[in-house]
Amino acid sequence: MNGTVGYGLVLGGLAFAAFGALVGLVSGLRRSDAGLPWVMRAVWGFAACLIGANLVMVHALVTHDFSVRYVAQVGSRSTPLVYTIVSLWSALEGSILFWGLIMGGYIAAFAFIHRKEHARYMQLALGTMLAVGVFFTFLIAGPANPWGAVSPVPMDGPGPNPLLQNHVLMIIHPPMLYLGYVGMTVPFGVAVAGLLRGEIGEAWMAPLRRWTLVAWLFLSIGIILGAWWAYAVLGWGGYWAWDPVENASFLPWLTATAFMHSTMVQERKRMLKLWTLSLALASFVLTILGTFMTRSGIFNSVHSFTQSDIGPTFLVFLGFLLVVCVGLLAVRGPLLVPEGQLASPMSREASILVNNLVFVAITFTVLLGTLYPLISEAVRGVRVSVGEPYFNKMAVPGGIAVLFLMGVGPVLPWGKPDPATLRRQFIIPAVVGLVVTAVCFAVGLRGVYPLMTFGLAGFVTVITLRELVAPVRVRMSERKEGFVTALTTSAIKAQRRFGGYVVHLGIVLIIVAVAASSAYVKHTSGTLKKGQVIELGGYQMKYMGLVSGEEAHRTFVAARVEVTAPGGEVSELKPRLNYYERSTDPIGTPGVRETPAEDLYMSLMAFSEKAGTASFNVWVFPLVGWIWWSIPLLVLGTLIALWPRRKAAVAMAGAPALGSSPLTGGDAERGAA
Question: What is the protein's major site of localization (predicted)?
């Protein structure tokens, strides 16, 4: 029964998506508003069907309906309830179904929020998003169908992948990542609508920017939580290994970040129009590429799913997307005429352009290193390996350049600068950066890149804090709008700027933590008998013996280790090995002693009860926790930038309406920014 109802809901979602996409695109291209009510109904129907299908699958999982193929694949009566529910996204078919749920939610949210705005764009935007929905519901109904019947019906199942049951982070990491991935569908739909219509202005750059920022936030949280999961679960003594699937999530993050910076130049100087829309389209295409890399099975990764039949389908869709995007940019690109120009290489718009080029260079480097092994195997029949040395060599200088530009950009003015003013603005931050570098060197830290990173972090932090407390200045002589509109627009921009600087502080925190934990990590390993001690970084670790236990879904063996910190504090760590029925190999859980300054990280590698020994890997990671602690800053800054200003909206509503604008420029487009 669950299988029949669930599959019927998926087919209903496919029908709604196909109908809405067809009506939205056709009526939008005909410049008729008559189809919008039908498109809206299709959106509600699509969202309802996908939500219903996911609820049916959760019901099947919780009630252990092993007649449903996906439940038989990942379900188990011994799995705790919370992991039973989250097994919805633990395997390929369920993850695509969950993807559809999030897509339905995003499209419905966009339709509801903008239901009274710009009918000519809404039809094309929603039609484009529903066209993407057609592809994913087709996958759920066909190559990735989780609803197939199983006969004979088994009494029990193997349960989800043990790696996904080993830490609570797996409850929140995949949904955050999916919310980031799927969220890129909305700005893609808006960008395509603008290009198809032949008009785009600030009134629609605003939602394009906001929805990209929403997806960017979720993607950022998902990436950081994924690194934390790798650190807390896999026990290999790290959090980022340039794994192909890690890279797949990093690529759209890079282009989305570049896009959000580029929109500032378009908003202020009416420049980089084609470039900005290209970044919006590229971010979505890279999410589809990342999904293909994760779910096709072409990469051997702990993060990826097993070999599947959806790879060719994804390749066809990816090729179609590339043709559509390149075609739109080629046909409409000549209409995206810049209305301004770079006044000086020392202007803020020039620094943002350089910032964009650095982000794109890093994107290309990571993409090339990720795909090169596949290209080499396809062309030469030789599978090569591209590892951390390549990525670090290419990406680390780019990261330092981004950090430098984070400090320089806010100081530079729009347009031509005044040299004397610039010198005054840079003196204090530059001195602080040099002092930080000197102090780090004096306490014994070495390495060109880490010292550059710490010095630049001091430089950027001073500038960012100064900008956070700087008063909002409204120069009416530069405004063409009325007083209320100018004041409101300035307040909105000030709010976005304030949120952006809070996010910058979070990014600085991450960069410093990555530099410190990578450059100054300490490591040792050894096999100990009961009572023996191993030392590292001033810590003394005494092996006290083994303990074992049994939980609902696993058994475990843990080593008791008494830790004496450099300051004399005594605590106990219990690194352990977990044994699951489905897995032939144990899965480790490291013991971690966390402090703001550093983490002591211990992994139990093996043990012998007969010999009374246990083997350990031990690391000391300076500042590594700062990576996870950056999440509140990223969330706070993004919420500040996104938070609606009710008074501003009222003021803007009362201000004179603005004229419409084609891609070639002219008056601003009708609607509130």
Answer: membrane
Q: What is the mean pLDDT of the chain?
A: 85
- On whether the CB atoms of residues 27 and 63 are closer than 8 A, the answer is no
What's the rounded Cα separation, in Å, for the pair 626 and 509?
6
What is the H or E stretch that residue 559 is in? Answer: strand 554-564
Q: Are 99 and 12 in contact (CB under 8 A)?
A: no
Judge whether 391 and 366 are in contact, CB under 8 Å.
yes
Cα 532 from Cα 611, distance rounded (Å): 14
Q: What is the pLDDT of residue 200?
A: 66
Share of the chain above pLDDT 70, in %: 87
The 10 Å Cβ neighbour count of residue 263 is: 22
The structure tokens 């969950």 sit at 98
Residue the block writes with tokens 């500042």: 623
SS3 call for 283: helix
Segment 113-122 shows an average pLDDT of 79
pLDDT digits (tens, 9 = 90+) for 6-48: 999 999 999 999 999 999 999 988 888 888 999 999 999 999 9
Answer for the pair 295, 305: CB distance below 8 angstroms, yes or no. yes
- Of 150, 120, 134, 152, the C-alpha closest to 25 is 120
Distance CA 468, CA 464 (A): 6
CA angle 29–33–35, rounded 5-degree value? 85
Number of other residues whose CB lies within 10 A of the CB of residue 276? 26
Identify the CA nearest to 349 among candidates 259, 416, 277, 420: 416
pLDDT tier, 116 (very low <50, low <70, confident <90, very high otherwise): confident
Residue ranges of the domains in the chain?
1-160, 428-520, 522-625
Q: What is the DSSP letter of 161?
A: -
d(CA 406, CA 461): 9
Of 52, 34, 47, 95, the residue nearest 70 (C-alpha)? 95
Specify burial of residue 622 (Cβ count, 10 A radius: 0-12, 13-18, 19+): buried
Contact 57, 144 (CB under 8 A): no
Identity of residue 372: Y
Tokens standing for residue 232? 């807390």
Query: Which residues touch 458 (CB under 8 Å, ≥6 apart)?
Result: 429, 432, 433, 435, 436, 437
Say which residue the tokens 């508003």 belong to: 33
Whole-number CA gyration radius for the chain = 27
Q: Which of 101, 236, 235, 107 is nearest to 174 (CA)?
A: 101
- In one-letter notation, the amino acid at residue 463 is I
Q: Is the pLDDT of residue 215 over 70?
A: yes
Mean pLDDT of 352-381: 86
At 603 the three-state DSSP class reads: strand
> Is the Cβ–Cβ distance between 521 and 620 less than 8 Å?
yes
Q: What string of DSSP letters covers 101-151?
A: HHHHHHHHHHHHHTTTS-HHHHHHHHHHHHHHHHHHHHHHHTTT----B-S
CA distance 439 to 444: 9
Residue ranges with strand state E in 268-357: none
CA–CA–CA angle 658, 664, 665 (5° rounding): 30
The arithmetic mean of pLDDT across residues 358-379, rounded, is: 86
Helix, strand, or coil (residue 338)? coil
Q: What's the rounded Cα separation, in Å, for the pair 196 and 321?
A: 15
Written as one letter, the residue type at 215 is A
Q: Which helix (H) or strand (E) holds 604?
A: strand 598-608
